[in-house]
Amino acid sequence: MQCLFCKVDNDKVINSRTSIDGLSIKRRRECLGCGRRYTTYERIEESPLRVVKKDGTRESFDRRKILKGLEKACEKRPISTDTLENIVNEIEREIYNQFDREVTTNFIGSLVMQKLKILDAVAYVRFASVYREFKDISEFIDELKPLMTNEKKKKKDGSNSSRSISLQH
Predict the structure, then answer these.
(1) Domain named ATP-cone: which ranges (predicted)?
(2) Got the DSSP string for 82-105?
(3) The whole model's pTM is what?
């Protein structure tokens, strides 16, 4: 493995862990050239899954795009990177369990929205506003109403009013 920092191709593995879902191995490495540490992930290479976009075009599935969308939605929210990685792992596992060759962006977006709705209301609304392409404020308000009703019920019941839920395993 080539070091990200000094480009030397000589390192040692310090620690290896199987991911929670069992689909990858996380390896902590130390460069023998510069002494810096970095993390790599090892995954099974599967048959290429194609994503069918709204306009009918197709592209290769890329889990990094899901992570990037989650990061944007959760920006400045109290949500850890590990939690977002776990969500992406769950989504990826569900996609590969249900589809062999092609999956629609609508299906992926729906999965992301389900996870965000549980995790954090603000992140959910941020993602929904982009994903659903709200045309006006009334569509946005329609999306907020059920969330506000749930929040009022939580407060009335004396439940914890915290809006974020950790998905740590």
Answers:
(1) 49-139
(2) HHHHHHHHHHHHHHHHH-SSEEEH
(3) 0.61
